[in-house]
């Protein structure tokens, strides 16, 4: 199982204007839940102006839409329901009263995306635009050739780090924000530099020979406690592709692929599809990884999940209410700490994120309407690797997680020689440097060792 986790995009931001059509896994004609064919949505900004959702997004923004916990609260609840938190949003200082999340917005037009952009003084109309399919040829090709999930939600309504922890450990250990300062790091991590207890993530539950992390610059998964005992399991992208080509994966059953983030320049040079970088670099990485797996001896036994960690502050019209997401185990209220500084009870999912499932056992143009969140990664791995007893993870969220096996409906694999060639990512132009942000500061806290010792570039 390969998982390529990219950054900070909502489903509607990437696929809302794609008009994806196909069949459910059961063969019923259907259409993905995007923006085409619906009345135009719009959100009110801080001045009371309605800002419409429109196509034609910029490949690289000169700003980073807010997506910390407090930003997402404003976006999810809308400026009316989140009125008490508007002044605190920019500093991510929303301390939930009695641990209670405000009521969610009643409709997509009541969401607070335009308000959130305006609170930062950003270009609201630009931030409210989504991509058209011709702008993202690689992702749209794969969505049409394999399966797209239109009900995949971030595991919590907030930023990258806690959502990536949910993907690899089924929990964030209470972290509800980007750990961007020394006080948070020292107070929240067991040994001052690592999360977890050393035996509670996929990378520590599996044996070292069963997993690999392929990375560009700084692998965020290095922050998991216990993984530093196995630095040889962290490979650069080029090393992974060479290993695939030569058929030397051995016992490996789980490969987690992290993009180049480039936090040193606020993600400007990264390929993670972060809004401060150019999305075409992310498309090029997706194209590269897909073609490497397709050309490898592992194609006919592979599943590649391309998924985004969180919505990045971009509009999505599907509100994660009880009509769209299941209930989850409710945690008891705890006072704010350096780890859970907003008093969040982890009783809400985040917004939808794009997710594509690529496998020779997936029918072309499959559209999956089933609910998933990042726990589906561990649930799917447990099923295909036969790691169900004891459970691969111990968290309550893992116990209710869905898996992706219903999408593998073909009894015979689609041959690599019969696949249509993947289009190339569009060429990239230069742009001005974006503003520094707390997410970059979080990545810059990683104590990543010397590159020529542990791989990387």
UniProtKB/TrEMBL annotation:
Keywords: Hydrolase
One of the GO BP terms on file: phospholipid catabolic process
Pfam family, one: Phosphoesterase
Top-level lineage group: Bacteria
Entry keyword Chloroplast: no
InterPro entries documented for this protein: Alkaline_phosphatase_core_sf, Phosphoesterase
GO terms assigned for molecular function: hydrolase activity, acting on ester bonds
Record flagged with keyword NAD: no
Protein name: Phospholipase
């Amino acid at each position: 199982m390969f998982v390529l986790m990219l950054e900070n995009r909502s489903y509607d931001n990437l696929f809302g204007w794609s008009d994806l059509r196909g069949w459910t896994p059961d063969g019923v004609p259907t259409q993905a839940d995007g923006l085409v064919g619906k009345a135009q949505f719009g959100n009110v900004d801080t001045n009371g102006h309605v800002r419409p959702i429109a196509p034609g997004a910029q490949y690289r923004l000169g700003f980073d839409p807010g997506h910390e916990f407090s930003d997402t609260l404003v976006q999810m609840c809308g400026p009316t329901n989140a009125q008490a938190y508007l002044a605190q949003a920019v500093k991510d200082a929303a301390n939930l009263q009695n641990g209670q999340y405000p009521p969610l917005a009643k409709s997509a037009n009541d969401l607070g995306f335009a308000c959130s952009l305006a609170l930062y003084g950003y270009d609201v109309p630009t931030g409210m635009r989504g991509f058209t399919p011709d702008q993202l040829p690689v992702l749209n090709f794969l969505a049409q050739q394999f399966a797209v999930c239109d009900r995949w939600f971030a595991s919590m309504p907030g930023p990258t780090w806690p959502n990536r922890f949910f993907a690899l450990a089924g929990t964030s250990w209470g972290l509800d924000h980007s750990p961007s300062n020394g006080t948070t790091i020292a107070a929240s991590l067991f040994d001052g530099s690592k999360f977890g207890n050393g035996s509670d993530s996929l990378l520590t539950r599996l044996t070292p020979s069963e997993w690999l992390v392929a990375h560009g610059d700084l692998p965020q998964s290095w922050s998991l406690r216990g993984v530093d005992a196995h630095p040889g399991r962290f490979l650069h992208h080029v090393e992974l592709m060479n290993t695939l080509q030569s058929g030397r994966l051995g016992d490996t059953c789980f490969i987690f692929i992290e993009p180049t983030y480039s936090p040193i320049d606020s993600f400007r040079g990264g390929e993670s599809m972060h809004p401060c970088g150019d999305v075409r670099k992310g498309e090029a990485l997706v194209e590269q990884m897909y073609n490497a797996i397709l050309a490898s001896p592992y194609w006919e036994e592979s599943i590649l999940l391309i998924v985004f960690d969180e919505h990045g502050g971009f509009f999505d019209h599907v509100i994660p209410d009880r009509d769209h997401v299941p209930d989850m185990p409710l945690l008891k209220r705890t006072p704010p700490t350096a780890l859970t500084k907003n008093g969040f009870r982890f009783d809400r999912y985040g917004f939808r994120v794009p997710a594509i499932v690529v496998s020779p056992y997936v029918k072309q143009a499959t559209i999956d309407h089933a609910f998933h969140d990042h726990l589906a990664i561990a649930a799917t791995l447990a099923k295909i690797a036969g790691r169900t007893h004891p459970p691969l993870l111990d968290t309550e969220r893992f116990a209710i997680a869905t898996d992706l096996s219903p999408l593998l409906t073909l009894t015979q694999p689609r041959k690599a020689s019969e696949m249509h060639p993947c289009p190339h990512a569009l060429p990239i132009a230069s742009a001005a440097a974006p503003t520094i942000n707390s997410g970059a500061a979080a990545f810059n806290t990683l104590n990543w060792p010397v590159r020529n010792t542990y791989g990387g570039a």
